[in-house]
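Title: Prediction job returns without error message
Component: structure pipeline
Severity: low
Priority: P3
Assignee: unassigned

Description:
Job completed but the reporter wants confirmation the result is attached to the right record. Sequence as submitted:
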Amino acid sequence: MATHILVVDDETAIADLVEVYLKNEGFTIHKFYNASDALACVRTTRLNLAVLDVMLPDMDGFTLCQRIREDHLFPIIMLTAKVEDMDKIMGLTLGADDYITKPFNPLELMARVKTQLRRYTQLNPNSGSREQANNEITIKGMVIAQTLIITPIICGMIYSYARKTAPSIRVFAVTMGADRWQTAKLTVREMKKEIYFCMVTGFGRSISEVGAVMLVGGNIKGRTRTMTTTISLLKSQGIFTEGVALGVLLLVMAFLLQWICDILQKEEAEDENY
């Protein structure tokens, strides 16, 4: 089965050079000099990889990468003369898988293309548009990443509270003749407010996470894009009004959750008093 690669660069000499090297490797090349024609090809062709220039006449490569990522998960290599770290970070944040600066060695580009194709093929044996299997892996990875981030925070806070309150609870339990299991249950029961606070803090840290979600999830619209990654994306594009609006909405959601939890906690305390 042929491997189809999209090449988009407004510099004819570079686009032709990349095409020659890729064809020599046996790939089928779809070469364009602007983003509009490239997007039309993306909609009608089952591609396996894309090499995109950042500076294009009708649409910058970052936006083109973002548009492709809305519906497709094949690897994207950004090809540009920009060497600033922020440009690289933006490209990778918007969904690019690799970044090569001009001037470049064509042999290095071929090696990077083969590497990306090998990884993509291993993860997606039936690769195409909106690959469900890969998406499931990506979402699970996001959950795992979030869990790894907040678990040390929650455990550390609970341990800190336990060091202060557990000794007195243990003395009381031993005095009442409780065994170790009963003592542990009593400790958890007496510390439930502190545990609740730690869980809410962990949740707040989770919903504010950007880096891990972008790296693992790819910030794909309609699939792995979250409110925080959307805010980051809008900020990078200079769309501050919508970004601030989403930030305010996120804060309102966090305060609303906190308010509901406080009400439930007060009702529980009143029931205990009765």
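Comment from assignee: result matches the submitted record. The mean pLDDT is 80.
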